[in-house]
Design a protein that fits this description.
With 474 residues, the protein is α/β, with parallel strands linked by helices. The chain folds into 3 domains: 150 residues, Rossmann fold, CATH 3.40.50; 229 residues, tm_1862 like domain (pyruvate-formate lyase- activating enzyme), CATH 3.80.30; 56 residues, Nucleic acid-binding proteins (OB fold (Dihydrolipoamide Acetyltransferase, E2P)), CATH 2.40.50. Helix content is 35%, strand content 21%. The radius of gyration is 23 Å and the shape is globular. The structure holds iron/sulfur cluster.
Length: 474
């Protein structure tokens, strides 16, 4: 108000709403000057957690009034939400920066912002400061909610703004959010990780485990249901340790039971489950539920006891097999998927044989297979016996072949079934078809129109084409 000194709120999220309003005014001013709307593009690298963070970032930008631009190089504001789990994810970001600053795409007024896991690494930030000094804003994983504030600071100062926190206990929710799909949504139930697997950088870049209060999570689910969401995905690096160490907080399985009670929610998924603390109670809750999807992602990483120990995974191959078979016994129609790393330091052909053996026994419905990528500052990076590229290629091919063989066979088993599909979009390949997912997460394409999007319908699974189905609505 004129004549009154403005007070910037100290508390979150009120503080961010103040800066969203300020950024909105700055945008309007700029738009008047250039006589067109200002646009943004967010590019997301990495996992579901990043995808969820990007929805929040897009929500903030839309609340400021920016218009979405499909082409990254045409946007006035480009934001990279980065990942650092593998070296090639870092390289992709540098590549994109070079592309945007190259002579064909350079634009003086463009704002480039970087956030996410890669920005929590000192070496990456130093490199950007030195070699990509045209970047305007750098922030990390702990202050995604601060985008509007950082945009205002950058507009006032004009130079590169860097805001990286080493860690935080603060969890700021209730900020604007832009869902990719109106009928499904991810929900963060916890942040960070305490497990320190020796190859993984997550505990260093996302900090220690912090669970959100269950009351807040349930309230968010209720609001989403009122807003038309039918499927939710509860997100955390290790959801099985939700609530641990917090007095009177629910366990993960109890949280699932509470989530199930929310009217309007018809499907519940979660990601990711560390095998070391997946409880019998969780298996029972899944078994007895009509809403929890018949899919569990249970990262194996390696089937060799020697490698699992070096990875600090805290389970043996036999414990893992017993757990997976118990899940299959209790919930026969469940799909089990996994992550496998090939080429961890010290891994031999015999260790890979052990991994293949676990795959044979568990019979995965799908698997993400990765070649080990050295991340500096993790214990595995300095382990002796780093595996050569040539060895990796040979062993990776063996694992991949096995993944494809088994997952194809598992998918085929559903041929002829009538199953429920949540319709997600018009098929990429044929405008007369729609695509959706089974409870098991398998993709199905069938004849249908846009009006089905967001609905759950019965579909007969007619033809299995390796990893997806062509079906018919019944
Ligand atoms: S459980 Fe292990 S692999 Fe997963 S985020 Fe935590 S440290 Fe990384």
């Amino acid at each position: 108000m004129k004549g009154k000194e403005e007070i910037i709120p100290e508390k979150e999220p009120q503080r961010q709403y103040y800066f969203i309003e300020m950024a909105r005014k700055l945008r309007e001013e700029k738009e008047r000057e250039i006589k067109r709307p200002l646009t943004f593009h967010v590019t997301t690298f990495g996992c579901q957690m990043n995808a969820r963070d990007s929805e929040k970032l897009e929500g903030i930008l839309k609340a400021i009034g920016y218009t979405y631009e499909e082409k990254e190089e045409e946007a006035d504001l480009v934001l990279f939400n980065t990942c650092t789990i593998r070296d090639n994810a870092d390289q992709k970001v540098y590549g994109r920066l070079g592309y945007l600053h190259g002579k064909n795409h350079y634009r003086k007024d463009r704002i480039i912002a970087l956030c996410g896991c890669m920005m929590q690494e000192v070496t990456a930030v130093e490199k950007i400061k030195k070699s990509y000094s045209f970047v305007n804003i750098i922030f990390g994983t702990h202050n995604v909610y601060k985008l509007a504030e950082l945009l205002c600071i950058q507009a006032a100062q004009g130079n590169m703004v860097i805001d990286i926190l080493d860690g935080t206990d603060l969890i700021v929710e209730d900020i604007p959010n832009s869902r990719k799909y109106p009928f499904k949504s991810g929900i963060n139930i916890m942040y960070g990780c305490n497990n320190f697997c020796t190859y993984c950088i997550v505990p260093y870049v996302r900090g220690r485990e912090r669970s959100r209060p269950s009351k807040d999570i349930i309230r968010e689910i209720e609001r989403l249901a009122e807003d038309g969401v039918r499927e939710i995905m509860l997100l955390g690096q290790n959801v099985n340790s939700y609530g641990k160490g917090i007095k009177d907080e629910l366990s993960f399985s109890k949280l699932l039971k509470e989530a199930e009670r929310v009217e309007g929610i018809e499907r519940i998924r979660f990601m990711t489950s560390h095998p070391k603390d997946l409880s019998d109670e969780l298996i029972e809750v899944m078994r007895d539920s009509d809403k929890i999807c018949r899919h569990i992602h249970l990262p194996l990483q390696s089937g060799s006891d020697k490698i699992l120990k070096r990875m600090n995974r805290s389970y043996t191959r036999q414990q893992y097999i017993d757990l997976a078979l118990k899940i299959r016994r209790e919930i026969p129609d469940i799909a089990i998927t996994t992550d496998i790393i090939v080429g961890f330091p010290g891994e031999t052909k015999e260790d890979v044989d052990d991994t293949l053996d676990v795959m044979e026994k568990v019979r995965y419905d799908g698997a993400f297979t990765f070649i080990y990528s050295k991340r500096s500052n993790t214990p595995a990076a300095t382990m002796p016996d780093q595996v050569t590229k040539e060895q990796n290629r040979v062993q990776f091919d063996r694992v991949l072949k096995k993944v494809q063989e088994i997952s194809k066979e598992m998918a085929q088993k559903r041929t002829g079934n009538i199953e429920k599909v949540l319709v997600e979009e018009i098929s990429d390949h044929d405008a007369g078809f729609v695509s959706g997912r089974l409870s098991s997460n398998l993709v199905v394409h069938f004849e249908g129109s846009e009006s089905l999007i967001g609905q759950i319908v019965d579909v007969r699974l007619d033809e299995c084409r390796n990893f997806y189905y062509i079906g018919k609505r019944v």
